[in-house]
Structure formats: structure tokens, C-alpha cells
Amino acid sequence: MSGIFYVPAQAQDTTTKVINIINADVLKGGQMKGQSIQRLIGRVVLDHEGAQMFCDSAIFYDNKNSVQAFGRIHIQQGDSLSLYGDSLDYDGNTKIATMLGRVRLIDKQVTLNTNKLVYDREKGVAYYNDNGKTITKKDQLTSKKGYYYVGTKEFAFKGDVVIQNPEYTLYSDTLIHNTVTDVSYFKGPSTIVSENSFIYCENGWYDKPNDRCQFNENAYVISESNILRGDSLYYERQRGYGKGIGNISIEDTVEQVTVTGNFAETFRNIERYIVTDSAQMMQVFDDDTLFMHGDTLLATEDTLGERVMDAFHHVKFFKRDMQGACDSLSYTQRDSLLRMYYKPVIWNDSNQITGEYIQVAISKGKIYRMDIVDIALIISQEDTIRFNQIGGNRMEAFFVNNELSRIEVYENGRTVYYPREEDGNLIGLNKVECTDLTIYIEDRQVSTIIFRKKPVGVLHPIEKVNPLEYRLDGFQWLIHRRPKTRQDIFFWN
Q: Which of 119, 183, 289, 383 has the largest count of CB atoms under 10 Å?
């Protein structure tokens, strides 16, 4: 028999619809293992509840309402889903299709290839358990297991998931991809490797149409010489904008600088960023580390592409041989200059240094020069009530191995210091005023003072001196603000 024909439904459960035979070139009835069958040969077309099945040949089991199909099989459901294979077992009662051979599932932009695929039409899910490959226009994905949910148009892949793209390769344990929104979600340990970066997270998503992504749980991004870490990292490629929340860390492995905080925004790339909420900068030197805190830390680049680090409000820093505090601060990598603004104060050894503006020159982690401008004052404590003081309109302080060795005072130079006998007893108080002067320091004590212009000085006997009356303009003893440990930089007093 040949041509188009229709086989009426068999007597069975009225809730189950029989597979309809739409076409076959040849139909032969018969028996197989005691069951009534019909053999369909040539241009076979079947229909079952909205799905059409095409193949070269098939065996239809009348009593079981099931089909075995062979050769160039194609299942078409709706206008989006197509399933291809070499052989098929389909149960019309359970609506489960098992496809074998060179299996392909096509949903518009996505093609899934595997050797065996089970399609449960009742639950609206197709799945494989023995390796599969998914191909789009730009991506190729492989995994051990895969699921396709017809209703939501979502693929779920599990086990050794790998996506190969011309721009990156993604490795994950589990990945879910929505073919409508083109958004992917990855769960479990995941890495994304590209020419310029390495990304790791344990939970995240990627919105391909808008080119934006988010990485969560132990997330970090390695980009050239920088490492960015955080509980949650968000990035928009088109704007070059990124945001990090929770336990943020930005590390420059070349300069050995690390910035931490609980909120960060990056611009263009990791080289430019702003960090707040317990913000801290750490820079490692050969034998010490500088710790600095400010309400806000901002990293930018100058016109030559060198890093500039700015700190705003309640700034404090701690290094074993130097501590400081001010309202705002700027450090430029190009010239290694640290600039401090608004009530700056630096403590070095036993010296307290203040002025309206302080600039510190650093080389290889060591101070070698300091400029103090306007109401410049260096104070060291002689005892509980006496203080040695050096003041002027402007000063240049020079250091050797981070110890103060020479001070140049320009304009309105003044000194108040307490000389001692060789046995350590105080001689008196020496107060000198001189336009310009040079002071040499040895073993942390004033050794020589050279008065350069119009010196006027008086040595007062110690018994006739009231120390409280000898305070230079701008005198403040700020020892209570000095950070004694790295943790003290977070406390403003």
C-alpha cells in the first residue's frame, strides 16, 4: 500500500491520544514478538499532539501506542524546536522520545549535538547524560550532561562545562543559558580565560546582548599586573565600568600595592578605581610595609600613564619608622612624592612635624627629603613638660636611612631647645631667632646650628624657665593622634 492514509485510534485510555500516521509510501501489517505492528517505509510522517515526526522507516506498535523509527529522523514541535537523529523510540502514552546516533537539537540560534538524547514532551525537557556539544554562531560548548527546557527556552549544562569563544574560554561545573534573553548563569567553581585576563568565581552570570556580567563568591579577576577580588564583582564592558561589593582587594603585583575596602568602582580598567568603606592601602617595601587609610581612596593616571593615588578625609598612615595624619593626601608614582593637605602631621622617630602643607620624597621605601610649608614646625619631647622646637615659614628636612639628619629653615627661623651637660643634666633653654638657619642632627640630638642671617639668641638658666611660656607659633603636641599600630589608622581622634 502506498500514498497518504490515516489509522484511527485504538481502543484504550481515552485520556491518551494515539500517534497518527500521516504518510508512508509503504505500509505492512504483521506480528512481532506476539504484538500487532505496522511497518512504515518511505517518506514516513507521524503526528502526535502537536509534534510531527519524519523518518525513512518506522515500526508502529498498535497496542502499546509507540513507535520505533529509523533513518533521517526529524521531530518538529512548534516553530522553534527541531530534533534530528538516526534512530528513535517514542512512547505515545508517556510522550517520551529517546533519540540515538548523530543527534541534533536545534532551537533557533543554538544547536546541540550528542549521541543519545531523551525528550520528555510531557515535562517539556530534553536531556543527555553522556557528553554533548552545543554550537552557536560564536560559541562552542561541551559538557557531560545537558538539559533543555522547552517552555523557558533554557539550556542547563553540568559536569566539565567548557565554552570556547574567539575572545575567551569558560570552564564551569554548571551553566544555565536562556536562548531568549541570551543570558548565562554559571554555578560552582568557574573560570574565564582570555588573552588579557583570568576570572574565577563560584556563582555568576553573563548578559551577552548588553555585554555585562557579575561574579560572586570568592571572585577574583587577574588583568595584566592587577588582581581584583571581592564577594561580588560587576562589570559593563561597553562603559568600561565595574563595581565591587564586600571584601574588596585590588593588588598591583608590580608596584606591590594593595588597596582593600568593602565598596569599589572601577573605570575603563582596573588601573582606575575608587574604594570606600574601611578603605586601606598597603605598599610593601624591602623591609617594611606602609598602611594607609582614608574615607575614600582614588587611583587615577597622570598624562604619562603613571599611577596617582589620592586619599580623602580622615587620612592616617602607619609605617614602623614613620606615621602621619591629614585631611587629604596625594601620592604620585612618577616622582614618588607624597603630598599632604590640611593640618598635616608626620611623626618620625621622636620628631613631630607639622605645617600647612607637607611634601615627602620617597625612594625605595625610605624618606630622603621633606618640604614643610607655612607655619613649619618640628617638635621633639625633652621631658614631660619641655619640648625642643624648630620653626620657620618654610623648611627642608633631609633624612639618612629614615633618620632626620639636617634641617634647612627659610625665613623667620626660630629655635627653642634644651642643651644638656655631658652628664645629661639640663643647662638651660636656648632660644634663637634667625632669618635662615641650618641644623645638623646626630644620634637624634641637635649637634650643630648654623645661623645664616641676623641671629639673635638668649640662653636662659634652667631654674628661671617656665616651659609653658616657650611655645612657638602653631605649637600643638599631637601625640594622642599618633598611630602606634597598623590598626590605629582606622581611628580618628
A: 119
